[in-house]
């Protein structure tokens, strides 16, 4: 698939078929994240692949708006070693973006779930819930979760007309 088409086709998918993500497709998605650029090439990102239903359901409790985890067969928890790089959030975000595009290329759907700075309705930190479910050391900050799976239904792709050029300024 051409990059332009891949970018237009990428949409947030929150409903998935129960089928597992094919191993080869998952590997290609992970490769796209692992070779993403990082500041000073410090590569602080660590990705945890969760396919265990019980753990996925536990993670879904981290906050409202994480419902995609309830039917996703796979989730990539993208963490950054905050002791290794102060740019962990930026580095992980670039990796997540590359993985979302690679997912489209593999015929998969994905949805980015914000974890950092979010709380449950009763005030618990979403990041702490995820960190404790995965038994992660504190230095690993959670940049986000990417759900992955075969989309239950196709979503309308973007067209280039959706690009709002009012948000661009030129200084020539
Ligand atoms: C940083 C970031 C955080 C997001 N967090 C969530 C989230 O917590 N839950 C969710 O369902 N979607 C989340 N999304 C997906 C957005 O809602 C989605 O990208 C936006 O509505 C545009 O739709 P599209 O991705 O189909 O173009 C997030 C996206 C980004 C980039």
Brief account:
The chain has 6 helices and 4 strands.
Structure description:
With 172 residues, the chain is α+β, with helices and mostly antiparallel strands. It has one domain: NADH Oxidase (3-Layer(aba) Sandwich), CATH 3.40.109.10. Helix content is 33%, strand content 17%. It has helices at residues 3-9, 23-34, 53-59, 68-71, 88-105, 126-133, and strands at 45-50, 74-81, 109-113, 140-149. It starts with a helix and ends in a 23-residue tail after the last strand. The mean pLDDT is 97. The structure holds flavin mononucleotide (FMN). Residues 11-12, 14, 65, 68, 111-114 line the site of flavin mononucleotide.
CATH class assignment: Alpha Beta
**Rg over CA atoms:** 16 Å
Give start-end ranges of low-pLDDT stretches: none
CATH topology: NADH Oxidase
Bound molecules: flavin mononucleotide
Which architecture per CATH? Answer: 3-Layer(aba) Sandwich
Give the helix/strand class: alpha+beta
């Amino acid at each position: 698939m051409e990059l332009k088409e891949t970018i237009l086709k990428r949409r947030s998918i929150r409903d998935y078929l129960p089928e597992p993500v094919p191993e080869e497709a998952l590997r290609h998605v992970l490769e796209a994240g692992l070779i993403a650029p990082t500041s000073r090439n410090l590569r602080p990102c660590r990705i945890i692949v969760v396919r265990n239903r019980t753990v996925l359901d536990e993670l879904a409790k981290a906050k409202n708006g994480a419902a995609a985890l309830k039917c996703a067969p796979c989730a990539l928890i993208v963490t950054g070693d905050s002791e290794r790089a102060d740019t962990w959030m930026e580095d992980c975000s670039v990796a997540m973006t590359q993985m979302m595009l690679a997912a489209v290329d593999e015929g998969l759907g994905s949805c980015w779930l914000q974890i950092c700075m979010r709380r449950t309705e009763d005030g618990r930190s979403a990041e702490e819930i995820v960190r404790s479910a995965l038994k992660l050391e504190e230095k690993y900050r959670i940049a986000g979760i990417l759900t992955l799976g075969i989309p239950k239904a196709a979503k309308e792709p973007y067209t280039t007309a959706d690009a709002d050029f009012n948000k661009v300024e030129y200084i020539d």
